[in-house]
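Input set for joint prediction.
Command: fold jointly, output C-alpha cells.
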Amino acid sequence: MLIRPDRDDLQVIGFYLGKVMVGVGYVLGAPMLVAAVMGDWDDLTAFLLGAGLSISIGRLAERRFATTQQLDWSHGLVTAALSWLLGAALFAVPLDLSGHYGSYVDAYFEAMSGLTATGLTLTQDIDHMSVSVNLLRHITHFLGGQGIIIVMLTGLGSSSGQVSTLYVGEGRDDRILPNVVRTARFIYLVASVYLVVGTIALTLAGLVAGFSPLRSVIHGLNLFMAAFDTGGFATNSTSISYYHSAAIEGVLIVLMVAGALSFLLHYELWRGRRREVLENLEVRTIAVTGLITTSLLLLGLARAGTFTDVGSLFRKGVFSAISAHTSTGFTVNASRMFVTDWGRIAPAALLMALALGGMASSTAGGVKGIRVGLAAKSVSRDVRRAIQPDAAVVAVTYTQRHRRRITDAPVRSAITILVLYVLLFLSGALVGVYYGVPFEQALFESTSASVNGGMSVGVLEPGTPLPMKLTYTAQMWLGRLEFMAVFALLGYGIALVHGRI
Amino acid sequence: MTRRPVSARAVGEIAVAVVIVIAVIVTIRILRDSAPQARLPHVGTAAPDSDDPDIVTCERTLPDAEETQQAIDQVEPVGLISSTEVLECPDAFDQQVVVYVGEVIGDVLNRDGGAWLLVNDDDYALEVGPLRGHGDYRGGNSGLAVWLPAPLPDLEPGRGDVRGTVIQVRGRIHRSDAADGGGLTLRALSADTVSILREAQDLDRPVHRAQAVAAVLFALLAAAITLQARRSESRR
Amino acid sequence: MLLRPNRAEVFVVLGTVGKAVLVLGLATFGLAAIALLAGDVDSAAALAIGASLGVGAGTWTRMHTGTRRRLTWTTGVVAATTSWVACTLMASVPLHLSGHYASYPDAVFEALSGLTTTGLTLVQDIDHMAPAMALYRHVLELSGALATVVVGLTLLTAATATSSSLDPSDVRDERIMPSVRRMWRLVGEVAATTVGVGLVVMSAALLVAGVRGWDVLVHGVSLTISAATTGGFALTSHSVGFYHSALVEIVLIPLMLAGAVSFTLHRAAWRGERWPLTRELEVRVLLASMFAIAVIVMLGLGRSGATGDVVPLFRRGLFTTIAAHTTTGLHNVSPRLLATDWGLLAPAGLVAAMAVGGMTGSTAGGLKALRVGLIGKGLAADVRRVLLPEAAVVVATFTWGRRRKLEHGHVRSSATLLLILLVASLGAATAVLFLDSTVNLTEALFMAISAASNSGQTVGTLTPSDPVALKAGYGLLMLLGRLEWIAVFATIGFLYASLRGRQ
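C-alpha cells >
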C-alpha cells in the first residue's frame, strides 16, 4: 500500500525543481555571451528568451513552493526524474528557435540527448550552425554529465542505505565526503581541472592539426565537454573524422576514459591510492570486457577487410571500441559505413561494448561494470555452491573501496537492473522494427539510446517517424536515471491517485 | 508533523501553470516559424545531370590500383559522384577517380603541404543554401573528407551564416586511406584538378524583431520576479 | 578449490544413470514388440538393437556400481544431466538405423530434442516414416516429460522457488514428496490419466476430421503425447495443419495447457481439492501473459494481413500463441510463413511467449511463470521501498502453494536465470549469423529462444544441411534450458572436480 503524497511532499519537489529551472536560465548566459561576441543577434535573443522563461518559471515555483523542508530520497528521485524532463524542455526552447530542428520534438530530443550525455542528434544542417548554439549543445553535456554524478553520488547513490542498493549495491559507507555541498564542490573541482588541462591539450592538438587559434579553442572546448562527459555531440557532421588528427584522437581517448571512471575512483586517485585501481571489481570487470570487445572488434574489422593496413586498423578500431565502451559515441567514420563497410562482427562487438558501458557514478552509460561484475561473481558463487553444497559456506568476495562479501541484496538489484536494460534494448528495437527498420540496425540504435551511447548506424535522422523519436527520447531518459527514479516518479503518480491518505 | 492533503486549489494552480506553459510553447512556435528568410539563389550542381556515374554496383570488383604520378593526367574520371553513393557502396568506389562538387565546410586544416577539408554536397551546400536562411528542412549533412595538395586556391569555409566556397575536385577515392589512419578520403589528383565554382557568400539575414521583443519581455519578467522575491526575502 | 568426489558419490550417479538407460531400453523393447506384431520388421530390428544396447549398458552399470548411498542434491543433479545425455545416445541408435537422418549427429539431435520435449526436428522425409519409428519419437517425448517433472519437482524448482538461494540444504520443503520412487508413481498416474482421457477425445475428433482405421490410434497417440508433454513432434511435415480440423485444434489446446500446468495443481485437482487458484502467483502470471501475448500476436497478424478473415486470424493466432506459450511447438501454419508472411510483431510476441514458458513443475520449458512473477514482485517492492519513508519496512509476499515472504534470494535467482536466458540467446543468435549466412538476426533469435526454452516452434531455418556446429549449439541450448542451466554447470563442475579436485 502506498501512502498518498501530501502537500509538503509536492511542495519540496516543486521548490527544488524551481531551483533547477533558475539554474538552467543562468547557464544560458554563457552561450549568450558568445553570441554577443560573434554578433549572432538572433541566437542572442533566442538565449535571452529561453533564460527569461526559465528564470521566470523557476522563480515563481520557488516562491510558490517556498519551504525549508529537506529533500528525502523519494523526493530526490522524483525531482531528478522531473529535472531531466523539464531541463530538456527548457533547453529545447533556444535550440528550437535556432531554426536547426524540424520541430520542437526534435529540439527536445536534442536537449534530452545532450543532458543525458547521449550524443544522438537530430540537428539539420549542423555544418552551418552558429558557434553559440553549438556551444549550448555541448554545455548540456557538461551540465547533465556532472549533474548525474551528483545525483548518483550524493542525493541518491549512497546517502541512504535503502536506496543505494537499487543502484549499484554500495553501502552507506561509500559517501566520499560528508555532505552534498562538499561532494559537489569536489566534483566540480576535479571537473574544472580536467576542463582546463583537457581544453588546453585539445587546443594545442588543434593548432598542430592546422586550425586557426580561435577555432582551435572553440573546437577544443566543445570536444572536451563531449569527451569528458562521455557525451558524443560534435561540432560538425563528420564527428571526429573531421579533424584528421591522431593527436586529437589520443587526447580524446584519455578524456573519455577519465569520464567513464567512477568518481569514487577519481577521489581515491586524487588522494594517491593507486592500489584501488588494481583491486576494484568494477575496474577489473571493465578491463576484461574492454579487452574482449576490442579484440572482437579488431578481429571483425580484419575479417571484413575494412582497413588495408595494420596502423589504420588499430587506430580506428581502438578509438571506436573505447568510444563505445565509455558510451561516448564519437565516430571516426561516417555512420552509414558501420552498415556498408564494417562487416557483421565488428558492429556486433561495438554493440556489446555500448551495452556494457563504463563505471557506476560516472557520466558513462551502459549497464555498468559493477553490475556485470556482481552478476558474474554471483553466478560463479551459484555454481560453486551447486558443486559443493557440503562445504559449509562458499564466500565470494569483491573489492569496492574495501573487501566485501557477495550477498543476495546487491546482486538482486544489480541483476534486476541488468534484465531491465536488456528488455529496454529489445523493446526499443521492436518499435524500430515496426517501422520497417532491419532488426539489427534497430537493435543497435535502441541500445545506443538506452545506454546513452550515441553511436548511430544512420537509422535516426530528422525524417524518422515521430514514435521512434519519442521512444528513443524515453530510452535516453530511462537509461540515464537507471530506471529507479523513473519508476519512483510513476509510483508517485499512482500514489497521488490511489494512495492511502 | 501532521500530514496535509493536496488541496483542490493546488490542482487548479497546476492546471493554470500547464495552460501558461502551453501558451508559451505556442508563442515560441510562432516566433520560430516567422523568422525572416533570405533564400540564396539556387546553386545547382556543376555538371549536367545526364553525366551520371557509371558505378552502381556494390561489389568489390577493382584491385587496388597503383597510383603513378604521370598517369594522373590520363585517368578518365568515372563521372560526377555524390557522397551518399560513396558511403552506401564504399567498396565499389575504392581507388576510383571521380569528380566531386561541394561546399567547403568549417575549417581549412592547413598542414603537411596541403589541407584537409570537409566538402559537403548535400542540399544545403548545392541547392538551397544554409538552413538558417530559409527554413526549408532537408535533413542532415553529407560530405566527404577531401585532401588538397598545395598550392591551395582561396577558400572560405561555410559556417553559421556563411555559405562556403563551392569547389569541384577531380580525385581518387580511398576507402581506407592509410595516410589518414584508415579514413575514407578523396584525394585531389593534383592542385590543378581543383576549381572554384562559386565564391563564398554571407547570408545577411535581417534580425528577427518579434523574437527580440519577446526575449526582452521575458527577460524583464524574470528580472521583475527575481527582484520582487529578493525584496520580500529581505523584508522578512 | 574443489574436493574430488569420492567413489561412492560417483557410483550413486552412475547407478542412477544406469537405471534411466535401462528403463528407456525396456520401453524401447516394448515398442519393438508392437512393431513386430504390426509386421514392421525393419523398425522392430532397429528398435531392438537400441533397446538391447540400453538394457545391456544399464544392467552392466548397475551391477558394477552397487551402493547404498542416497542421492544428494549435487549427485542428483549430476545424475539427471548425465542420464539425459546417456539416454540421448541410446535413443539415437534406432533413429539413426531408421535411415531418416542424414548423419549420426542428426539422429542425436532428434533424440535430444525428444527427450527434452523440445520438438525441433532434423528428420528427412517424415511423411514416409514407418509409424513405429515415428511413434518412437513420441515415446522419447513422454519419457523426457515424466523425467522433467520429477527432476523439476525434486531438484530444480525447489531450489529456485522455495529457497533464498540455490543452496541445496534449503531444498527441503513440504511440497517435495518424501521419496523419488513415490514421486515417479504419482507423476505416472497423472500422466496416464491425462494421456488416456486425451486419447479418447482426440480419437473422436480425428474420426470427425476424416481419419480412418488404425491411423486414428496412431495419430491420436502421436498428437496426444506431443501436446500433453509440450513436446511438439508430429507425424507429418505439416504438423497440425495436416488435419484441417478446428476440432482437433480445440482438443489440443487443453492438452497443451495440461502439459504446462504444474504437477502440484494437477494433484490438487486429482484429489478434488478446491485450490485457491486465483491467488497462485503462477496462475495469475501465466493467464495475464497468455492474454497479453495473444492480443499482441493477433494485432501483429491483423497488421501483416497474413490471414484474411477474422476467424482464421483468431484460429491461427490463438493456437500458435498457446503452442508457443506452453512451449509445445505444434503449429497449424507452415513454419516458414512465420518469417515470410506474419510480419515482425506477431513473431516477436511468440518469442516473448516462449521465453516466459509454462509453470514450474510441469513439462513446459522457458523461464517459467513463477520466476517472471517473482521478478515483477521484486520490482514492485523496490519501487514501493523507494516511495515509503525510510523507516518503513516493505514486506512483499507471494503465493506458491502457500503464502511466502519474498526474499532477495528469490528475486536474485529468478533474475539471474532470465539474464542467462537472454544473454545466451542473444549470443547464440549472433553465433548463428556466422555459421549460416542465409539466416537473419530476427530468425536466429527466434530459433535460439525456441531451443533454449524447449519450445520447438520454428521459422523453418533449421535444416539437415546446416553445419554440425549449429546443430550442436541448438542441442546444447535445449539441454541447458531443460535442466535450467545450473544443473549443467554443476555437472561440469563435478566432472572438473573428478579430474582436478583435491582428494
